[in-house]
Structure formats: C-alpha cells, structure tokens
Amino acid sequence: MQDDKNLSDIDIEDQTIIENKELSIWEALIPVVILMLMLAYNIFLADGEALGEYSNQFILLLGAAVAAIVGFFNKVRFQIMMKEVWENLRSVFVPIMILFLVGALAGTWLVSGVIPAMVYYGLQVLSPSIFLPASVIICAVISIATGSSWTTSATVGIALIGIGSALGIPTGMIAGAAISGAYFGDKMSPLSDTTNLAPAMAGTDLFTHIRYMALTTIPTIIITLIAFSVMSMTIDTTGTADLSSLLISIENTFNITPMLFIVPLVVIALILLKTKPLIALGVGVILAAVFAFIFQPAILDSLGDSKLGATVNAILTDTQIVTDNEKLNDLFAAGGMKGMIWTILLICCAMFFGGIMDAIGALARITKVLLSFATTVFGLFASTVISCLGLNTIASDQYLAIVIPGKMFKQAYKDKGLAPENLSRTLEDSGTVTSVLIPWNTCGAYQSSVLGVSVADYFVYAIFNWLSPFMTLTYAALNIKIKQLTSNTK
C-alpha cells in the first residue's frame, strides 16, 4: 500500500489502457531505450550529476519529450497526452502530501526526542547479532497490521535506521531488512490496497489470493530471514564497543523518557483504526511538536530565538542537533518538508513520462508483444513478470504495474486452463514488491527519501523484493502448486 487508497477508492473500470494500432513496437521502445541510456550514463558515468542536482528529473522530462514526438508522428493529439499526464499527477497527490508530512514528522520527532529515545532504548535491546532478522520481523508485523509499507517505513523504519547506524551496521543492510519485512507484510495483509487490487484484476477473491500467495511468499521470507541471520552473525560492527558513550551522549543532549513513545504509539493506533495516513501522520507531527515544548525546551532554545520558531523550522526545513559524539551528529539531523522536494519532483517527472507513454499507446503495445511470446505456461508466467517489471520501470507506478498486466493477461491465463489466482499471485510477486527497487518509481523514491538510503545502497539487501519474482518463476518452471481451472469455473 503506497497511500490511503482502499479498494473502494480504486474504480477498476476507470483504469483505462490506451491502444494505438498505428504505433509499432519499435516506435514504442524508442523513448524507453533513450531514457534507459540517459539514466545509465547519469548513474554510472556522471555520478548522478550529468545535468546538475536534478539530473534524473531532467532526464525523465527529456524521455517524455521523446515519447511526445513519437506520439505526434502517430497522430496522437497533445491534449490527449496532457490529459493522461494530469491523471497521473492527480493520482500521486496524496503520496506527495504524505511525503511532505513524513518530512515534517522526521523533524518534529527529532526535536521532541522521539527518535533519540527510540535509538536510546533500541541500543539496549537490539544487539548486532540479531538486529537484521529482528528488523525484518518487526517491520513485517507492523506492515501486516497496518497494510502499509509506507507508514511502516515512516515509523519503525526510521527508528531502525537510527539504532542500526549507531551500532555500526551499514545503512543499506538496515534499509534492505526493513523494506523486506515491510513489503512481506504489505503483500500478505488484507488491509493493503495492492493485495485487494491484484485479485480484483485477476478475477479471484481476496482470501483465496492470500492463501495461494503464501505458497511462494513464505519460502521467500524464510530465505530472507536466513540470509539476514547469516549477515548479522558475520558483520563487523563498530558500535558495540562504543555503546556506553553513545547512551551517555544521548542522555546529556536530550531528556529521555518512555513517555515519548506515546507519539509513535498514537500514530500506529490511528493507522490500525484505519485512519487515513494523512490524518495519522498529521496528528503525529502536532503531538510531537507539543512534546518538544514539554520535554525538550533546552533543545528548542538551542535551535532558535524562540521555541515556536525552532519547532516550525523543524517542520519546514533543515534541523541539526549537535552532540558530543560525532557518530550521533549525522544521525540527529532532519530535512523537514524541504528535504522531500527532490523526491517529489522525481515522482512528478516520472508521472509525466509515464502519462505520455500511456497516452501514445506505448505501454499497451509493449505489453501485447510480451503476451505474444506466452506460448507455454512458463512463458505466460515469464511474460507477466517481465511486463510487471517493465511497467514499474517505464510507468513508475505500482498500480499500473498491476492493472495493465492484469487486464492484458487475464484471458490468456483462462485460455491455458489456469485458475485466476495464478495471475493475481504473479502480479503481486513481480509488480507489488519490485516497485521499491526502481529509483524513479513512486515507491523507490519514497522509501529512499524516508529512510535516507539510496536505492543503489539497499537494492542488494532488499532480498525479499528481488527474490520474489525468481520464486514465482521457479514454481512455474517446476510446475509446483500451479492451480488449474475446475470445470465449474471455466
């Protein structure tokens, strides 16, 4: 789940797929190839700064311009392109608001002492030997309960990054563990919108989908836990030897009390009560601001001329709290709403590219070509996986990576005599969980920004996410638990 949409808010019939018979597959691929080449050059040869700080954003806009030129040559009107761009931008309005609130949340949770308290108590409970698998389990439990990987990252994910960093564990590993657990829970929770959307697109019911999905998901999370357990036992940490000095530094800087945990507990309780994330996170910001006045007056005095001004500054822009321990100085810094602007612009530019690609019929054309290669059962599964991965990359949206392949491949699964839960499971195994592995996808941009770790740094360690498509293909190749249609359902 990436925002506050529930299945009732997602009108399946409104998820149109624009086809353009005049567009060839080679024309459809031109913007994709050019975009991939530009992004590859920027990432691998120009250190992400080929066109300045906002290089990826400019590249996505250039890719959109190329797609628009292809569209003009194929008689697609400019108004149609802009309409699809607007629909895409409108679809990410709530996620953008969530991002702004997460930035404000990080700032107020810092100055109120909430994050320092989580780090302080967490250092005493979570040792390096169990930290990574424990992080997977904690995030999985929270995400199952809330149905949202996004809110899981914005609450316990941020805390785990702080605790693990203080223990000397690489942030990429921590983020990978947190994301693996969060997406396992998101995928298996009946409260998640994607878990509801996938069976709706495939033509099966929610709990049949969840039970069938467990066949591939449980082995994947077990392998993930084993991998992180091995990492935890072999990792060379630097934080344990300096643990006492870290705790003393936190105590000397902040007023640490268990009362501070009221703030995150209230936010989690609101989410469990199905309160919209915008409201839950907004309450978290306001409550943390109040707690800053009550518990951290000295911190607020050190940050500005007035306590109110320091609190507003923490919400809107950069905040840095200096301690007597250098390790904690980087940890106790937040960017507020301002820190989310880069990510928000990336999402908007990705939606611009995806909207034009949809408007010119390129997404439908690419998916249809993949469908034409699905001559065998394994080929059908492989085509679905590739389609989901491709749409997460091209359209930059998790929902489109489920909706378009779901509509395109539904009849093909039926024609092969396969039960619809095969399709719904494959959509989740390859569409839902891989969105976070694409830097310019809404999910990848969000998680990277919230956790403060680049996708490149956590990619390898997001084991559950990249292993899931391989697991579903393995089951298909070996014909393990591939359910056939019964005579009553054909």
UniProtKB/TrEMBL annotation:
Keyword Zinc-finger: no
Main location: membrane
Chain segments annotated as transmembrane: 28-46, 58-76, 96-123, 130-150, 156-184, 212-235, 255-273, 278-299, 339-357, 369-395, 458-478
Lipid bilayer topology: Multi-pass membrane protein
Keywords (A to Z) from UniProt: Antiport, Cell membrane, Membrane, Transmembrane, Transmembrane helix, Transport
Membrane keyword on record: yes
Compartment(s): Cell membrane
Every Na+/H+ antiporter NhaC-like C-terminal domain range: 181-479
Pfam families on file: Na_H_antiporter
UniProt-listed NCBIfam families: antiport_nhaC
UniProt family annotation: Belongs to the NhaC Na(+)/H(+) (TC 2.A.35) antiporter family.
Record's protein name: Na+/H+ antiporter NhaC
Native organism: Bizionia hallyeonensis
Gene: nhaC
